[in-house]
Design a protein that fits this description.
Rossmann fold; 5-stranded parallel beta sheet; about 15% strand; 4 domains; 14 strands; 20 helices; alpha/beta
C-alpha cells in the first residue's frame, strides 16, 4: 500500500518508515502538518499515518482534510496518553484506528493488515451488491432463448451508460419490464422510475401530465402540479406508446431533451431536470416519420440505442419457463400441473397477445383449477380454441352472416393482399389503401394480421 507518514519526531519517523518499507509498503514521509496536506493533495495514498501533535496543523485537522476529500484513504492516529481523548474524537470523525506512544512498529503493521482485509471485504461486498442488483433487475425478464439472451445482453451493455433507449416490440411483449430492468441495474437505481402510458391519457391532458402546471395556469389549476419529468428527477422516465403522442407535444418533448429543462404550463421559468428517458413503441417509428406522424428529429433523439423485443411466437422455447414463472406467482402455495400434450399446444400456439396473453391464460387457469390442481386445457387455450371455432363457423356457414361481417372479412382479405403485394411494407400499404399508417396498424391488430 502507499502510505503517507506524518510525524515531526525524526527518530520515530525513520524507524517506522524503514519497517513499513521492509513489509512491502511505499512510504512518503513528512515532518509537519502543512507538508502532509501538500503531499496528500499532490498524490494518491491508501493510508495516512499521522501524529496527533505536529507543527502547523494537528493530526485531527489533517484527518478532517483527508475525509473531506472524498477519497477512500484510511487514517491511523499516533497519540500520547495526554491526548487520548482527542484520539477517541478522531475515531468518531472517521479515523480507522489509533496507537498510543510508546508503540511497537508491529502495532502499525498489524493495523495496516486489518485495513487491507477491510478493503478486500468492502470490495467483495460491493461486487456482491452489484451482482444482486443485476439479478434483481434482470430477474424480471424470463427467457433463455437466443432472441431473449440477445435482449438481456444489450440491457447489460447499455444500462449504466445513461444513453436514451427506444424499446420496440408488439403489444404484450414486456416493454415496461425491460425499461424497469434498465433502471434497476443502472447508476440511477436509487432514483425514481416514473412510467407514463401515452396512449392511456387524452391528448389534451398529456402535456399537463408530462410537464406539470403552475397554480392558476388554467381554470381548475388550484395548486401547482409537478409533471412526470420533475417527479423523475435523478431517475428514469419511461414513455410507453410514444407513437401515440400528438405532434404538438412531441415538439415540447424535443425541447426538454435538447435543453435538459422543463417549463410547466403557465410557468415563466424553466426547471432543470436530470432524467434518463426510455421510450417504447408498438409500431415502426421510421415508417411513422415517413408518414409525417412522428417528428424525425425526436425519433433520432430517442433512438440512441434500440432494443427490439421478439414476439412470443419467435421464442417458443421460453414458454415452459414463463409458465413456471407465472404459476409460482399465482399459485399461492398450491401445486399445479399441466399435461405434457397441453404444454405442447401452448408452445405451438402463436400467442398474438404475447407474454401478456400467456400470463392472463395462466391466471385464468389457476382460478378455474380443480381440487387436484390440474390446469384445464380449455382455460389455458381459450384464445386459440375461440379462434379455431370462429374459423370453423366461417367455413361451415359463410352464407349465414351479417352484411357487416361480410364487409369486415372482405376488408381484412384486401389488406392481406395489399400487404403481400408490397412485401409487408406498411407505409406503402397504407398509401395504396388510402389510409394512415396508424389506421392500418389498428386494422391489422383488429383482424389479427401479422
Amino acid at each position: 500500500m502507499r502510505i503517507l507518514l506524518a510525524d515531526d519526531e525524526r527518530a520515530i519517523a525513520i524507524t517506522l518508515a524503514d519497517d513499513l518499507r521492509r513489509a512491502g509498503h511505499e512510504v512518503v514521509g513528512v515532518g509537519d502538518g502543512p507538508q502532509a496536506v501538500a503531499a496528500f493533495e499532490a498524490g494518491a495514498f491508501d493510508v495516512v499515518v499521522t501524529d496527533m501533535r505536529m507543527p502547523g496543523l494537528s493530526g485531527l485537522d489533517l484527518l478532517e482534510r483527508v475525509k473531506a476529500s472524498g477519497r477512500e484513504t484510511e487514517v491511523i492516529i499516533i497519540t500520547g496518553y495526554g491526548t487520548i481523548d482527542s484520539a477517541v474524537d478522531a475515531m468518531r470523525k472517521g479515523a480507522f484506528d489509533y496507537v498510543l506512544k510508546p508503540f511497537n512498529n508491529e502495532e502499525i503493521l498489524e493495523k495496516l493488515r486489518k485495513i487491507r482485509e477491510f478493503r478486500r471485504l468492502r470490495h467483495e461486498n460491493a461486487e456482491l451488491r452489484e451482482e444482486l442488483d443485476l439479478q434483481k433487475g434482470l430477474g424480471q425478464l424470463v427467457g433463455r432463448s437466443p432472441p431473449m439472451q440477445r435482449v438481456i445482453e444489450r440491457i447489460r451493455t447499455v444500462a449504466d451508460r445513461d444513453a436514451r433507449v427506444l424499446i420496440t416490440g408488439e403489444s404484450g411483449t414486456g416493454k415496461e419490464r425491460v425499461a424497469r430492468a434498465l433502471h434497476d441495474i443502472s447508476r440511477r437505481r436509487d432514483g425514481p422510475f416514473v412510467p407514463l402510458a401515452c396512449a392511456a391519457i387524452p391528448a389534451q391532458l398529456l402535456e399537463d401530465e408530462i410537464f406539470g402546471h403552475e397554480r392558476g395556469a388554467f381554470t381548475d389549476a388550484k395548486e401547482r402540479k409537478a409533471g412526470r419529468f420533475e417527479r423523475a428527477h435523478g431517475g428514469t422516465l419511461f414513455l410507453d406508446d410514444i407513437d401515440d403522442m400528438p405532434l404538438e407535444t412531441q415538439v415540447k418533448l424535443l425541447r426538454v431533451l435538447q435543453e435538459g429543462e422543463v417549463e410547466p404550463l403557465g410557468g415563466t421559468q424553466a426547471i432543470p431536470v436530470d432524467v434518463r428517458v426510455i421510450a417504447a413503441t408498438k409500431v415502426d417509428l421510421a415508417e411513422a416519420v415517413e408518414d409525417g406522424e412522428f417528428r424525425e428529429d425526436l425519433y433520432y433523439r430517442l433512438n440512441v440505442v434500440a432494443i427490439d423485443l421478439p414476439p412470443l411466437r419467435e421464442r417458443a422455447d421460453d414458454i415452459p419457463l414463463l409458465v413456471d414463472h407465472f404459476l409460482r406467482r399465482a399459485a399461492a402455495g398450491r401445486t399445479y400441473t399441466i399435461a405434457p400434450e397441453v404444454m405442447a399446444e401452448l408452445r405451438a400456439y402463436r400467442w398474438p397477445g404475447n407474454v401478456r396473453e400467456l400470463e392472463n391464460a395462466i391466471e385464468r387457469a389457476v382460478a378455474l383449477a380443480g381440487a387436484d390442481g390440474t390446469l384445464a386445457r380449455e382455460a389455458l387455450l381459450e384464445g386459440a380454441l375461440r379462434r379455431r371455432r370462429r374459423g370453423a363457423e366461417e367455413a361451415e356457414g359463410a352464407a349465414l352472416v351479417t352484411l357487416k361481417e361480410v364487409v369486415r372479412d372482405a376488408e381484412a382479405a384486401h389488406i392481406r393482399r395489399v400487404l403481400k403485394a408490397v412485401e409487408g411494407h406498411r407505409a406503402n400499404a397504407a398509401r395504396v389503401l388510402g389510409i394512415s399508417r396508424k389506421n392500418l396498424w389498428e386494422k391489422m391488430k383488429e383482424f389479427g394480421i401479422d
